[in-house]
Write a structure and sequence with these properties.
Layout (H helix, E strand, L loop, with lengths): L1 E5 L6 H4 L1 H9 L5 E5 H4 L4 H10 L3 E9 L3 H4 L1 H15 L6 E6 L8 H17 L3 E4 L7 H13 L4 E5 H6 L4 H8 L5 E4 L1 E2 L6 E2 L8 H11 L5 E4 L8 H17 L2
Parallel strand pairs: 1-2, 1-10, 2-3, 3-4, 4-5, 5-6, 6-7, 7-10
Antiparallel strand pairs: 8-9
Length: 255
């Protein structure tokens, strides 16, 4: 299991200040970084890979988002969007696409959504790419209806489970991980402040990271990733450096 961080904290600066952001993230000690295609795009692959190589940082995966309803209403367009990201990562050391979907308002055919995602997940696998579904809390609403639909109807899909959002959705993170092993090779780490949807820096919230990291080490493959995702708050490299030091301490000593 490798440890990474998420460039989403720096928003569009990953595009406008690419080298400075890559250099700063490399100095945190993490092995890799996840980058969002909505900020960086998919048109400057060699430039990005060159900078990552220069600073000895891996691309753990690339994120792509979209409306979940588009998997029914605009299937061709959203499929092409995901496959463009798959093309970007397919010959990298970590061919991971991280897919998320927005909250669905009103009734929707969850089975059809899952089946259409499955078509693209299968195409990704044939390219040598894992399509990892990144959840929020709404996948676990209505007794985890959307999560269950994806698990049952998209067998080629992996789960890039965000453990903080699983918890916010009312479920035990490691119990959910255990339901879809071995389709989990990528997770996001965050620390809930308490009940609700507010998150704090790792080690400042309610998660028992000693137990959590011990559990992840038993289920994630050697090339799997645990990626710390800070979305809000100060865009400070020091936050990620402290998160890496915290995780190292937890994994070495259990404290």
């Amino acid at each position: 299991m490798k440890l990474g961080c998420h460039a989403v904290l720096f928003r569009e600066r990953i595009k406008t200040e690419t080298e400075a952001i890559i250099r700063g993230l490399a100095e945190t000690g993490f092995q890799g970084v996840e980058i969002g295609s909505r900020f960086f795009g998919t048109g400057e692959k060699q430039e990005l890979l060159g900078l990552l190589g220069r600073y000895h940082l891996e691309l753990s995966g690339m994120h792509v988002g979209g409306e979940l309803r588009d998997w029914i209403d605009k299937e061709e367009a959203i499929s092409a969007k995901v496959l463009a990201v798959a093309e970007f990562v397919k010959d990298t050391a970590n061919p991971n696409v991280v897919l998320s979907g927005s909250r669905i308002a009103g009734p929707a055919d969850l089975r059809a959504i899952a089946q259409n995602i499955e078509k693209v997940a299968g195409q990704c696998l044939r390219m040598g790419v894992r399509l990892n579904y990144h959840n929020h809390d709404w996948e676990f609403a209505a007794e985890a209806a959307l999560f269950k639909a994806l698990a049952a109807n998209a067998p080629s899909l992996y789960f890039g489970l965000d453990l903080g959002w699983v918890w916010a959705g009312g479920f035990d993170p490691m119990a959910i991980v255990s339901e879809v092993v071995p389709r989990v090779a990528y997770v996001h780490l965050r620390d809930p402040k308490g009940p609700g949807k507010e998150f704090v820096n790792l080690g400042e919230g309610v998660f028992d990271f000693s137990k959590l990291m011990s559990g992840l080490k038993t289920v994630l493959p050697e090339d799997g990733w645990a990626v710390v995702e800070y979305e809000e708050g100060e865009p400070d490299f020091g936050r990620y450096a402290r998160a890496k030091a915290f995780l190292d301490r937890v994994m070495e000593t259990g404290l």
